[in-house]
Specification:
With about 400 residues, the chain is mainly beta. About 15% of the residues lie in helices and about 35% in strands. It has 5 helices and 22 strands.
């Protein structure tokens, strides 16, 4: 299915886009140029969403909040730069969420199936040592109690996943990227909620995929496949950078890593892709967003690991995410996902849409980071509000 201009979508502008040749600018110069108000980067807004942790004890939630405060303070004091001894003591804690206990062991003190505090760590450690590190480094004494159930999950450093074929029109699930990055993934298509953006057909992905981790400007060239997979401007351009939510690297709280690229309507398509016997096969997801839930079975199609299945194992996750160059960003209210058979994602899958593994395929999250066998995603309900878009699926 090809989306054409007959559906009423406008084509992106061709003037002043970095990464485009003079010939390319002339070829697309017939399109209108957005007004000055479109050049401003957007700030994330926090939508009111139902609390998925309403059944968790207040004691456990208070401990989680105290650990989040400790993580935030450590980033603020370090100026967003990771020190050489960063993984000692409390620095070994890379994130925290509410998960489900796995039974008494060296890596879990929670009862199977009951809510437990899940700690994501860079280096292997025991429950007791992790608790001691939190008490010593963050002063959260309540966590030391034997009554506080804790899971230990080794993720290593949680990286913002920055990284094969060229496809036209381009579907969701394939390699894409800002002309100055390596590669990420097209999550799906979207349209703005108000004029003039409601006439723009856009691709949805991460800030660090489409906007070069805050380094991009409106009208920058976006290519499919991404540069590391051979994509070049202008011959492989499918969109221009349209909007992104800036990432705070100074200790402030982030909720989303997301951006939109204004696409030429005939160069993209609403289906997602996966390989079946080496041949591209297509499917659709819905545009009815749903809240994540512990144990929910989900899927994604991404540039590197293709079509995979996972299960949500953590909610309300607060994590420190490494963006390279010593830059660390704190994210809250994230979804943690574990692959059902092997890894759910790998580098280059960033930007993939995550949806329920059932007939409805309702969008749940936007994949943006991972470590070990754990994938982390923004809530899609936050993404659409922050970018002021509706999914076009």
């Amino acid at each position: 299915m090809m989306i054409g201009n007959e559906n009423g979508f406008s084509a992106p502008p061709g003037s002043s886009g970095r990464g485009q040749s003079a010939d390319d600018e002339e070829a697309v110069g017939q399109f209108s140029v957005p007004g000055d108000d479109d050049n401003a980067a957007e700030s994330a807004s926090v939508p009111d969403v139902p609390d998925a942790l309403s059944g968790v004890s207040m004691e456990l939630l208070e401990i989680k909040r105290s650990i989040e405060d400790g993580m935030r303070q450590s980033i603020s004091q370090a100026g967003g730069v990771r020190a050489a001894d960063a993984f000692s003591d409390g620095g070994n804690i890379q994130g925290v969420s509410i998960g489900l206990g796995e039974g008494a062991s060296d890596s879990s003190s929670g009862e199977p199936g009951l809510p437990a505090l899940t700690l994501y760590v860079a280096e292997p450690t025991s429950v007791d040592r992790a608790k001691a590190a939190i008490v010593g480094a963050m002063g959260v004494r309540a966590v030391a109690s034997d009554k506080v159930p804790v899971n230990i999950v080794v993720t290593g450093v949680i990286d913002a996943q920055p990284h094969r074929f060229r496809l036209r029109p381009a579907p969701g699930g394939v390699s894409v990227g800002h002309f100055r990055i390596t590669a990420g993934t097209i999550g799906c298509l979207a349209v703005g909620r108000s004029a003039p953006r409601n006439s723009r057909l856009m691709i949805l992905s991460n800030n660090h995929v489409l906007a070069n981790s805050n380094g991009g400007v409106f009208n920058d060239c976006i290519v499919q496949p991404g540069p590391i997979d051979g994509g070049r401007c202008p011959q492989d351009q499918v969109a221009v950078l349209e909007r992104f939510v800036p990432i705070n690297f100074s200790g402030g709280v982030n909720f989303v890593d997301c951006a939109t690229g204004w696409a030429w309507p005939d160069r993209v398509r609403p289906e997602l892709v996966y390989l079946s016997g080496g041949v591209p096969a297509y499917f659709r997801i819905s545009n009815a967003l749903v809240a994540p839930a512990l144990g929910m079975l989900v899927g994604k199609s991404g540039r590197t690991t293709q079509l995979t299945q996972g299960r949500i194992t953590g909610l309300g996750a607060t994590i420190n995410v490494n963006y390279g160059g010593g830059r660390i960003a704190l994210f809250q209210d994230q979804i943690a996902i574990t692959g059902v058979s092997g890894a759910f994602s790998a580098g280059g899958d960033s930007g993939s849409s995550i949806w329920t593994w059932n007939q409805q395929r309702n969008p749940v999250g936007l994949l943006f980071a991972g470590g070990g066998n754990i994938t982390f995603a923004n809530q899609m309900r936050r993404v659409v509000v922050a970018l002021d878009i509706n999914l076009y699926t």
